[in-house]
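Quick one - first record:
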Amino acid sequence: MQDMDDAFTLLRRAVDLLSEDAAAANGQMVGDVREDIGRQEWEMVLGVLIEIGDVHPVSVDFWELLAEAARQMMLDRSCRWCEWRAWEVQHGTVRATLSLVGAEEGRRRTAFSGDGRLRPMWDIGNRSAGGERELSIARLWVEYAQELGPGETADVRLAPLSPEQWRHLKCGDVITMHEARPVAGTATVIEILPPRT
């Protein structure tokens, strides 16, 4: 079973799931990862495997192996990212550019952690049978930043609790984020990728 293997065995198993021509954006390839394994550069191996997975289509199993390895290595953010990416393989990806309202306009006064723990509500255009606005919940991951604060803008990834309710969205759609009564932010959808399983 996966959870009985140590982190280093899990990383080796993840490498074996990749084709030899898989490469990270910086050009590092599977052969380079195997060399890093030989040198026991485990954190570096994990990082390069994550980078390869971010640009090369990989399976849920790949991400789950990396998530467990990161958990064992006590790399919490990396673990959460790998779990997030496994979810995206199963359910698809919604990316958007989110602009939060300023502290003077909204309720939020401080930045929030961008690692997928925030679960705001979103107005994505859905209506109830009676025509009333229905808000949908999605976890939020901020790309390339540890946190996002009032008045700031960043590209984000959304993980809806009910992905099927989001299937109508397309690039260019504008959706709004709510943490309470006033709008907390506005996002423009920049990419929709279907599930890969």
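second record:
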Amino acid sequence: MTIKLRPATSDDAEAVMRLHLQCHEEAYGRHLPPSFFAMRRETLPGRVDNLRRGIEAGHIPMLAYDGGGLLGLAAGGPAQHADAPVPVELYMLYILQRAYGSGAGQLLLDAAIGHEAAFLWVLADNPRAQAFYAKNGFALDGASDVLGDDWHNLPEVRMVRAAVAP
């Protein structure tokens, strides 16, 4: 599998949001009821429009793909939390199950935040993701939060890393 990266364009918005939904279903299917995913499918057009506007405004996620299509996406940038432990935040990193272990996640992580000191939020009950981030120097810092009602109040934890040598 040869994995390539490229920035998303506004023309990618629908495919990216469908990928995002599939990744959510694969990663969070055991945490959330089918009604959650049904709602996400129903609201897909609005999220596609939001992503398209975001891309046009310069908020561009990085995409991983191979000969079979899109594999994952990631985005990072300036911290969006007032109590941020470091200035860079990984906003999202999602990979399809078919690409687990392929290196796509590593490529996306490196493209999204480079070697900067950074932090992220991850579901408290997501050992696979936490292990991936730990391998990349992230550690739990004791901060926790709860996602909103629309996400069924799932608990999340914060992971932080110092800058890493290139």
